[in-house]
Predict the 3D structure of the following.
Amino acid sequence: MLELAILGFLHDEALHGYDLRKRIAALTGHVRPIADGTLYPAIKRLEAAGLLRRDTAPGQVAAPRHMLTLTPEGRAELRRRLGEPAELFVTDENRWFTLLAFLRHLDDPAAQAVVLRRRLDFLTQPASFFWDGDRPLRARDFEDPFRQGLFTIATATSQTELRWLRATLADLDTATT
């Protein structure tokens, strides 16, 4: 998830490590805070793999700054990860949101639609927590008010996402025909 966010943000522009960390924190910080001990080793791994490059630029006040830039190989890797996301990026909500934040970088509407269909397929599979055998559960089926709340919130979120997915897929299908 962190590597995808790094590649995605650097696709738009070269960034200093601190600016990159602020952007990642704005995207995922409410769920997964980003510490320097996590970010900088990931940057070094991507740099060692040839996916990004570090250049020195004059600092705004004093010391030179190390600017991070995506290489052509990094752009290709970002497109590969977006077009062929691991299953966890489709099924885990936090990873899905990170993927969705950068899916625009996958320039092909048909390829974008393939990814969205994978999410749609996942969301339309019955989840055991929301089903009793062959019967879908309702909020009132739970005696516990907190499980009722969990069910109500999860159902509303899923229904909203399903509507968005179907509408966006219709738009993408129109764009490809």
The chain has a mean pLDDT of 87. The chain has two domains: 1-84, 108-177. Residues 108-177 form one domain. The beta strands are 15-16, 52-57, 65-70, 131-132, 135-136.
